[in-house]
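User: Before I run my own analysis I want an independent prediction to cross-check against. Here's the chain; please return only the C-alpha cells and, at the end, one sentence I can use as a sanity check.
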Amino acid sequence: PMSDSAFLTEEEADTVSTTHTYSSVSLGTESVNRKIIVACAAYLASHSSVTVDGSSATKRITGAQTGAYGHHSIWEVDLPTGASGDIVVVHSGTVTDAGIGVWAIYSTASTFHASDQDSVVHATGTDVTTTATVPANGIMISCCTMTNIVVTAAWTGLTERWDGGMGAHQWTGASDYYASEQTSKVISVAETANTQSYRQLLTLTYGAS
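Assistant: C-alpha cells:
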C-alpha cells in the first residue's frame, strides 16, 4: 500500500516567458519508492514538458478553461534521491502567469498507478464540482484556476493546501490521504460571490496495486 504522502510547496511565476524554472524546490524525504507529483497552471499556453531535478516527468492529466485561457496539467516522476531540485516547466507558447504545486508520495507496492482522472470546466454562477473514487491507502490531488483574483476559494471534501493569486488569476489546490476506500467522493470549490467567468478543476487519485 501507499505508505505516506506529503504536500510540499506551491510556487508562482508572474514573468512573461515560454519556460519557467522554479529553483531549489523542496522534494521531501528521499526514498527508493518516492514519486514527485507536480500540478501546473498557466495562462495562454499549455504545458509541453516538466523536469524535476533533471528527470523528465510524465503527464497524467490535462485540461483547459473555456476559451483556452487557463491551462492545467498534473505530472509525475519517480525520483528516489534529492532533497531539493529545480523544476522546469516548458510551455507551448508564451504565458503571462504560471504556478506549480508539489507533492511527494510513497508506495511500498511493486507497481503504482493513477486512476479516476477528471477535468471539469464551469462558467459563472456555480461551484466547480466533481466526483472520484479513491482506493484504500490512496491520495486524491486536485487543483483549480479561476480567471480573476478573488478573496478566497473554499474547498468541500478535500483539505485546502494553498489559495492565492497567480498574477492576475486565482490558483488553489487541495489533497487528502485515505486509509479506506472512498467511493464516489464528491469535492467542490466555491469562490467569493460566484462571479468568476471561467474555472478549471483537475482531479487525480493515486493508489498502489
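Sanity check: The chain has a mean pLDDT of 83.
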